Amino acid sequence: MATQRILDFLATRRPAGPCLVVDLDVVSDNFHAFERALPSSKIYYAVKANPAPEILRLLAGLGSSFDTASVAEIEMAMDAGAPAERISFGNTIKKERDIARAFELGVRLFAVDCVEEVEKVSRAAPGAQVFCRVLTDGEGAEWPLSRKFGCVPAMAIDVLRHAHALGLDAYGVSFHVGSQQTDLSAWDKALGDAKAVFATLAEEGIVLRMVNMGGGFPTRYLKDVPTAQAYGEAIFGALSRHFGNRLPETIIEPGRGMVGNAGVIKSEVVLISRKADNDNVRWVYLDIGKFGGLAETMDEAIRYPIVTPHDGGEVAPCVLAGPTCDSADVMYEKTPYPLPLSLTIGDEVLIEGTGAYTTTYSAVAFNGFEPLRSYVI
User: Fold this and answer.
1) Parallel, antiparallel, or unpaired for β 210-212 and 169-174?
2) Among the options 19, 114, 318, 325, which is catalytic?
3) Domain range for residue 278?
């Protein structure tokens, strides 16, 4: 997944320390793939995946909209050239003053998942559009997002009914099937739940118009994943099954699927050791770990492809860990990672598929290590 442009950059620039390099050509290709896969859906890039200004400017220029989680992200998207009407405040947990600031900036689309949040929006952003997030089970996702956000469909009906009564525009529903979702059928049940909410409220004269189908589109790590086109066909089929010929407006929020495979982290082997003379599992310590940007290795959820200078030779299982003085800074131990026996201290390795959820997860100065450097080419 390291493009020739990335390899050439690393060879010529020789950046120090662990760093992420993102190839904008791959991001552009991914955006167009989503456009082709779901031509009738608006693309709202999930800024949290990677908010690098160069990425935001590229996507704004391509016509993307933006899913934001904070006022800071709204301002980043606007600084990159996105008008307020192409920005959604997609976090369901917002301070009332942040809702007011977003509204002041021109944002009119807000996520909610309870009546208490609806009341905040009605006070701080009168007349705004709201969509209610519905819980999903996240089955099939490597990074589930099922419990913290959303409410059951029956409650979503009450939430949107309340929004309508308070003078807000009850615009639609949203769901998120879980990040790195590899089950093509995952959207089917969620769209069925969305349709039930639409139907119940329509009987009361509240006509919802939009389904936000969230993110979840995967990037390739160690296993192959379906193409954007395959997701598009499965999602369109589910939409047609549940909504017939009266298809709602739809939004998708790719984050990982937009930038994950566009980035590669260059890292260095700091130490290789064993815990006992008869221990046949080596410990390999890199100069990057959970606190340096690889937080998604928590519970070994995301297993990144690692390229070494010795690939092709004999391998053996290793425990892979980061450099900090924290016992939690171990990436792969329950399922050791196969690495070449000839790997040695000082070797540079490439951690692929790291364009999403790395720089923003990197600690500011834990143990004195600087945040993960990022280069966008």
Assistant:
1) parallel
2) 325
3) 261-376
Question: Residue 180 above 80 pLDDT?
Answer: no
Q: 371: exposed, middle or buried (C-beta count within 10 Å: 0-12, 13-18, 19+)?
A: middle
For β-strands 41-46 and 282-286, DSSP reports them as unpaired
Query: Which of 255, 191, 272 shows the shortest CA–CA distance to 59?
Result: 255
Domain end point (choices 193, 228, 254): 254
Cα separation of 111 and 173, whole Å?
9
> Same domain for 273 and 319?
yes
94-147 residue pLDDT tens: 999 999 999 999 999 999 999 999 999 999 999 999 999 998 764 544 445 556
Please provide residue 252's backbone torsions phi and psi, each rounded to the nearest 5 degrees. -125, 155
Whether 65 and 45 have beta carbons less than 8 Å apart is answered as yes
Whether 118 contacts 74, CB under 8 Å: no
Give CA–CA dist 337/320, Å, rounded. Answer: 7
Strands (E), 87-213: 87-89, 109-112, 129-133, 141-143, 169-174, 179-181, 210-212
Please indicate whether residue 367 or residue 141 has the higher confidence score (pLDDT). Answer: 367
Q: Are 48 and 73 in contact (CB under 8 A)?
A: yes
Question: Is the residue at 125 inside a domain?
Answer: yes
Q: Of 17-26, 184-193, 245-254, 341-350, which range is least confident?
A: 184-193
Q: Is 325 a catalytic residue?
A: yes
